[in-house]
Amino acid sequence: MCDGVPLAAIATAVGTPVYVYSAALLRDRYRAFDEAFGGYPHALHYALKANSTLAIARLLRDLGSAVDANSVWEIEVARRAGFEPRQIVFTGVGKSPAELECAVALGVKAINVESAGELARLEALAAKLARTVRFAIRINPDIDAKSHPHISTGLRINKFGVPLDEARALLRTAAARQRLSLVALHVHVGSQITSLDPLRRAASLAADVSADLLRQGFQLEYVDLGGGLGVSYDGGAAPSIAEYVGALVEEIRRTSLPIVLEPGRSIAAPAGVLLARVIDVKPRDASSDFAIIDAGMTELLRPALYNAYHAIEPISTPGASPTEPASAPPDREPLRRAGTDATRLYEVVGPVCESSDVVGRDRTLPVLSPDDVVAIRDAGAYGSAMASNYNRRPLPAEVLVDGGEWRVIRRRQTIDDQLALET
Ligand SMILES: Cc1ncc(COP(=O)(O)O)c(C=O)c1O
């Protein structure tokens, strides 16, 4: 069930693969961030890269969120979702001249600058357009976030941000720059971080450098601490939103600066599942079978890209009651089909022509048959946003459940949609 709506009914009505999101959980996660600040001044800039489906962006806007955009196209989605330019921070390691020009012309809240070259280009652009540009410097604090190497961004060897010594030198030139206004420091050390330590250290460093800048007379408006809070995909420990925000406030309070946060995964991941149908089951070895489902790396890239874990559960068929209540804590025990305890070891794989197209390795699940539907959990972030057309597979449909009702918020792509771009 998703908030009282049977997932099986959605799978039947819309077909599979389909993403299903809980509006209630999206709201709960956003509010948990907002409330965790207590009275401390802050702004939440939801990271659109995690999931920028228009209805989800709008839902978060209605709660008072602002956004972090990583490309001019995410800026455009933000605009169409109703965000004002001053609610947008623009980050990205390779912003093209056209993207920068668009952000400057629009007058976004800040452009988070990632290199000396980019700052020079921005200065030239500001002069050309006769605009004053608000910017932040993204510092690379050389902190090991101990996340997956593909999503660690805060080490000096990572491509992101400006190393601290270089940033200090660059900041010394900031006051003399024509038409550039330094409004903040920015730091983001990676994603899916499940220990507070690196996040706290990055915040502490940002506080130190910000305090220096304030002493030098820079009129900083806030400090931007990025995103990065991990979620528990496998039942392992992850800090709560309250613990995370509490730790950041503790580090920043001495500067008295408001905090900007850019959470993506920690808001959207738990609020979405990907439903897929079993296409085939065939023997793998003496002790396991392959369960081939109709979603794979084209719909959910994370397992193939990062060896990421997502819990997989068969969903009960309408009328059958699972042995666990629908509200059971997400302890990752698969639901059992009513009336049977039989389980089997499966390699759950997608239909894509790549051996890396494995959605779940070595999963003990209730015995599966073709046409069964499985839910791949915690897929609300970096799921549909990373989907592709490889093998000419269509982008999946997406559904939002809100107040006991559900609606399609993105229809399934058709082959005509794909070919419309081609001559
Ligand atoms: C600059 C920046 N801000 C925010 C985020 C969102 O991070 P997360 O989804 O881990 O909260 C990312 C993603 O890596 C990012 O690169």
**Radius of gyration, rounded?**
23 Å
**What's the helix count?**
12
Bound molecules: pyridoxal-5'-phosphate
Assembly state: single chain
Span between termini:
44 Å
The profile of the biggest β sheet is: 9 strands, mixed
Write a structural description:
This protein has 423 residues and is an alpha/beta fold. The chain is built from twelve helices and 18 strands. The chain has helices at 7-14, 23-36, 54-62, 72-80, 97-106, 116-129, 164-174, 196-215, 241-252, 265-268, 302-306, 415-419, and strands spanning 18-22, 42-47, 66-69, 88-90, 110-113, 133-140, 162-163, 180-186, 222-224, 259-261, 272-283, 288-293, 312-314, 343-349, 358-366, 373-376, 397-402, 405-410. Strands 1, 11, 12, 13, 14, 15, 16, 17 and 18 form a nine-stranded mixed sheet that branches. The protein has an eight-stranded parallel beta barrel with strand order 2-3-4-5-6-8-9-10, surrounded by seven helices. Helix 4 (72-80) links the parallel strand 3 (66-69) and strand 4 (88-90). The radius of gyration is 23 Å and the shape is globular. The two termini are 44 Å apart. Mean pLDDT is 92; it is low at 318-339. Bound molecules: pyridoxal-5'-phosphate.
